Amino acid sequence: MEYKLIGPEHYKQVLEHLRKSFFADEPLNKAAGLCQNGCSNPELEDHCLEALQDRMSLMAVDEKASQDGKCKIAGVVLNGILRAGDTSKALEKLEETCDADFRKIFELLHRHNLKYNLFEHFDVDAMFDVRILSVDSGYRGQGIANELVRQSVAVAKKNGFRLLKADATGIFSQKIFRSHGFEVFAEQPYDKYTDADGKIILPVEAPHIKLQLLYKRICNEGKDREQAQ
Question: Which DSSP string corresponds to 164-175?
C-alpha cells in the first residue's frame, strides 16, 4: 500500500470512493438518511472539496490493483485547516442550505465546536482538522485507517501546527484517534441531542452512542515542550 497526498487530479476519484464507502454509512449520515450508497449529496461533496483544497489530505493506494492510469483508492483521510471564526461562519452559511438532513448533522457538529472553544482553550489561531476518515470495505482490517491518521499527524507537524482536532462520530474512529494520542475534550450523547419536544434529532444506531470532540497537541515549539513536561 502506498500513501500519498491528494492532489486536484485525484478529487474525482476521491469523491467516487466516498460515495461508495462513506457517505451512506457514516453514523450521522445514516441516522439522517442523507443519501443512499453510491449516491451523491451536493452539500456533502462541497464540504469534502473544501477540505481537499487545503492540500493536506491523504489517500492509501493499492498500486497492484491500479490500472489504465487510474489508481485504486483503498482509503482516504480528509484534513483541513480550521481557523478562528470559521465555525461561526459555517453555521451562518448553514441557514442557506435547502437540505434539512445536512443541516441537522452540521448544526450538531458546529454548535458542539462553538460550545467547547478549542481556540481559546489552547490559545491557537488555527488547527489541523481531521474531518473524514474512510476505508473501502474490501480493505478494512488491514491497518489502513491507523496509518492514515499516523501520517496526518506527521503532515500537521511538518506544516507547523500545534493542535489537531477531530469530530469523531463513531466508535471505530474514536478508538483509532485515541490510539494515536488524541484525547477527548467533550462528548455529546446522541440520545440527549433532542428538539423542543424531547424527540431525538439524530437516532444513531448502536454501537455508536456519542459524538466526541478529540484533540492532540504537538509539542514542536519550546513553549509547548515546557508545558508538556
Answer: EEEEE-SHHHHH
Q: Are 43 and 107 in contact (CB under 8 A)?
A: no
Residue 169's pLDDT is 98
Number of domains observed in the structure of the chain: 1
pLDDT per residue as tens digits for the range 98-115: 999 999 999 999 999 999
In terms of residue numbers, what domain contains 156?
2-228
Residue 121, number of CB atoms within 10 A of its CB: 11
Q: What is the rounded average pLDDT of the residues 81-109?
A: 96
Give the C-alpha separation, 61 to 17, whole Å. 12
Instruction: Residue count of the chain, please give it.
Output: 229
Sign of CA dihedral 88, 212, 149, 40: negative
Query: Which domain CATH number covers 179?
Result: 3.40.630.30
Which has the closest alpha carbon to 124: 162, 72, 97?
Answer: 162
Is the pTM higher than 0.90? The answer reads yes
* b/e map 28-64, b = 16+ CB within 10 Å: bbbbbebbeeeeebebbbebbeebbebebbbbbbbee
Number of helices (H), then strands (E), in the chain: 9, 7
CA 6 to chain centre: 15
If one counts every other C-beta atom within 10 angstroms of the C-beta of residue 197, the result is 5
